[in-house]
Design goal:
- Helix content is about 85%, strand content about 0%.
- It has 4 helices and no strands.
- Helix 1 (about 1-15) packs antiparallel against helix 2 (about 20-50), helix 2 packs antiparallel against helix 3 (about 55-85) and helix 3 (about 55-85) runs antiparallel to helix 4.
- It is mainly alpha-helical.
- It is elongated and about 55 Å long.
Amino acid sequence: MTVTLTILAVLFSIPAFEGSGWLAPGSLVFYIVIYAISPGMPGFLIISEISPLRARAKVTSLSIFIIFATNLVIALVSLPMLNEPGVSATFWLFSAI
């Protein structure tokens, strides 16, 4: 995931070249695929598996609330970051995180 975000940051930092028109969307699609098979879906599965039965519903609902809250923060912060520091700085920050 870090490699794909770094590729996007580099692509937005340098002038366009032949082939960059497919490299940026390809890198973004690859990021989505990697996220879906690594921390995305297994995170939901692990939450329910490590919780004891008596507290599983509460722990799972709290964990999913935290996941959606962090997604909301990222969504609210992303657009202002794209406007102020710029697209390449935003992707450099995301790849560092």
